[in-house]
Amino acid sequence: MSFGDGAQGALGLPDPEMGPGGDAYEPTRVSGLPSDITSISAGHYHSLAIDSRGGLWAWGRNQEGQLGRDPLASRDSWNNPKRVEGLDHVNVCAAFASGVTSAAIGDDGSVWVWGKSKRGQLGLGRGITEAVIPRRVDALAGEKIVKVCS
């Protein structure tokens, strides 16, 4: 369920359901998500949801690639929850949605990041400011990470 500011598709609700302002004033079911969601992380304009099988779903603003899908995809599709591309082989156990970045932790402790970074928020090394699909943070390989945030 989601409610509040629906700008940029952040609520995951179809436009007709949200009305002219794009806001939802009561909890409303997010269609398109599996029924076995175990965890949610809400960022500024996008959200992430983990299902019981470790699949990660995203919806909302994608201007900076924080949904883990093609940032050139139609803006009309941003509010539709979709599986995050590039994590098919990862059993996600935790996720974090920030402003323009997203992160996930695999059950093996691996950390995956995507979105845009101006000052190293992705942790992928100097000069890497964007990841359209999730990339593993190699500098943390061998560590057992249990939580991530920014």
UniProtKB/TrEMBL annotation:
It comes from the Eukaryota. Keywords: Repeat. Residues 1-32 are annotated as: Disordered. RCC repeats lie at residues 1-53, 54-108, 109-150. SUPFAM superfamilies: RCC1/BLIP-II. Pfam families: RCC1, RCC1_2. InterPro entries: RCC1/BLIP-II, Reg_chr_condens, Signaling_Regulatory_Domain. This is Regulator of chromosome condensation, RCC1. It comes from Corchorus olitorius. The lineage of its organism: Eukaryota, Viridiplantae, Streptophyta, Embryophyta, Tracheophyta.
